[in-house]
Request: fold
Amino acid sequence: ALILCPENPYPVRGGGPTRTAGLVEYLSARYELDAIVFHEAAPSADSQQHWSARAHAVEFVRLRPHARHAAARLWRNFVRAVRGVPPLVDRFSGYESFLQAFLRGRAYDLAVVEHFWCSGYVPLLRERASRVVLDLHNLESVWHERCAQVTRGLLAWFHRRFTRCAVKLEQQRLSEPSLILVTSPVEEALVRQRASGASTFVYPNTIPYYAPYDENRFHRIAFSGNLEYYPNIDAVCFFYKNVWPALVRRWPRLEWVLIGKNPGGVQAIVRGERIRFTGAVVDAVRELARAAIAVVPIRAGSGTRIKILEAWAAGTPVVTTPLGAEGLPLQHGIHGWLARSPAEFVEAVSFLLACPTRREALARAGRALYEQSFTWEAGWCKLEMAGI
Reply:
């Protein structure tokens, strides 16, 4: 088998790498696995060690460098908007010669393409593999559409433009793979709207098994995620402006911990003596286990939220927007608490802070659901059902 990864999943940190790493673990136990992995920085020794233990041959393809300052990003997105190509599809295109050189003389029973960003390589891989599976972490058109709804001005215009571009590409490309893996029935329905002939299978986001942590629960709430990822930036800024001030007035000793890499994505806006950033952590689940409540004020994005799975694994009750819980079997008042407005967020967090027994009940139910359906092992059973 072959897997094509637009981002290196090792070391396993973050939502996308976690999903990809789960697939790599599954495939390496059942196939002689090769991998093509895009990267910006040279792979670390730790990453190479992970791959050498799981793959027969690995080709690291270095992405073209590009500047990350605001003016450069604005110019790139302007060019992409004119060309009609969504940002990450553009970022990972144009590497056919590297793939052809690696694939020369090789043949596979199965090739797996991670993310829609690399879907343009499906026809090339079909020449070398009996089956080509596209693993959709998100639906790009929905991701941009929802980002447009929570932004303004030029940024909203870009997202609306990229929504239209992504819809067109999805209509063209989603019928090409032998099978498409989607994160939830919600995503499956959306894929079939784009390409009625697409063959789909629900392979939910899952995370490794974590034994229950016996951590001290502090008087704190927590948010976890990559703080440079736009839906997370929007969620944190929304919570800081609309929910946090009222919570601090009610609970003067309450602490808000933001767990995850790239804190610079929000630190210019989100600040205060009772707000703490951890930066990148080895174990986000352990950090979540130290909080009384996990907050997920997501207003944009697509797919399902691994941050909720991590909170369930940590035994930490979740307060989330309906969009944050989309695609997950979260029942309000049983596996978590849904909040549809800033006022509902304030009331839900305050109610749970004041009611330890209700927090414990939510935590137990969330943990049980995680153990039953959202470990890597549970996901691998789904892949077996899909014939992968």
Summary: The chain has a mean pLDDT of 96.
